[in-house]
Structures are given as structure tokens and as C-alpha cells.
Amino acid sequence: MTDQPQRHRRWVLASRPHGEPTAENFRLEESEVPTPGPGQVLLRTVYLSLDPYMRGRMSDAPPYSPTVAIGAVMVGGTVSRVVSSNHADYQPGDWVLGYSGWQNYELSDGSGLVKLGDNPQHPSWSLGVLGMPGFTAYMGLLDIGQPKAGETLVVAAATGPVGATVGQIGKIKGCRTVGIAGGAEKCRYAVETLGFDLCLDHRADDFCRTAGPGLPAGY
């Protein structure tokens, strides 16, 4: 973990998108790899999570969380390794969960970092089923939805990280699970891999007609 590449790369928000973001809304910047000061660690990004909430953070409309400033690094959850450290709690090689965003290196004072153990077998899972998407699925379904065995559970965006987890928890709870996804390939994945009982393709021309037989009365 002592060798450092020549350059540090980061993607910043260059302009605010109107509609779907394009490449012109971002700018790649390069600089020297930073050196940690007293009490700091240098993190190298290994995994970056790309999530739907990022679109809202690009906008200057009133957000539910702070807007990314023009010229600032795009936000994002990350799993990183410590390259070098002047912090007593972190050693080179440590795996950590953080929020470094769209860049391959970050200096951190340790705030908000979560250690993932000495040698995690699946470190990327901390950005998925063991991270924010998994927590959202778990709390949303079990704490708010409170499903009961025998009920039909309908899950939109069924092949995304939250929806996929909701569907599998629903099966554990004894529910009949119906997923909604875009495209035949995603629907096959929902049924054959994720274990949904049925998946409806919202892009299909006959979606409205075929949805009825797959759902109980009242949907």
C-alpha cells in the first residue's frame, strides 16, 4: 500500500443538468496525489456506489439533502483502503466505508468512516445489501410495511438494490412477491435469480392489461 500513482483524478459537477444528465455536466480534474497531514488518512477508492439520489443532488431545486456545488466533487458512497495514515485509529491496508465521492483518492480526518474488518470477503456489499440500500429495504418493509404471510407484495424497480432486497425479505416473510421492472431481461432476472413469483414489464405494450391478472383485487 505504499506505492502511489502519479495523478489523482476526480469528477466534479461542471453545470446543473436540465433533464437527463450528460457528459457536459461533469468535468474530470487531475492533480498530484495528496499527502496526509497530522491526524489525516489518505484513502484510495476501490468501490463507488452510483445511486438515483445523485440526480437530486445535482439540482439547485430545494433538496432533501445538500446540493452539490458547481466545481465540487460529485457525492457518492465508497469503499476504500487506507494508503497512508497519520491517524492513530487507521493503518495502511485498512478497509473502510465512507463518502469520498467520484474520486480515486481522498484525505480524511476519520469522521464518518466505518472500518470493515481486517480482510472482508465481500467489501462491496457494504454499499449494497449491507449498506444504505439494504437498510432502506429492511426498515421500509419490516418497520413501515409490516408484511404478513400470505399477502401479495408488489415491488417497483424490483431489480434495483432496494427492490431486489425487499422482494427477498418478502419471500422470507411468506409473501407472494410481484416485481415490476423495465424489460423482459430484467423480469427474467427478477424471477429466475431474485426469486420473485411474478414480474411485470412496465415497458410492454400490454402492461396495463396483463397487470390485472397478476395482482389481487384493488390494485
TrEMBL record:
Organism superkingdom: Bacteria
CDD domains noted in UniProt: PGDH (cd05288)
UniProt EC number: 1.3.1.-
Transmembrane segments: none
Gene3D superfamilies: Medium-chain alcohol dehydrogenases, catalytic domain, NAD(P)-binding Rossmann-like Domain
Oxidoreductase as UniProt keyword: yes
Keyword Oxidoreductase: yes
Domain Oxidoreductase N-terminal residue range list: 9-116
Alphabetic keyword roster: Oxidoreductase
Catalytic class of the enzyme: oxidoreductase
PANTHER family to which the protein is assigned, alphabetical: PROSTAGLANDIN REDUCTASE (PTHR43205), PROSTAGLANDIN REDUCTASE 1 (PTHR43205:SF7)
Protein name: Oxidoreductase YncB
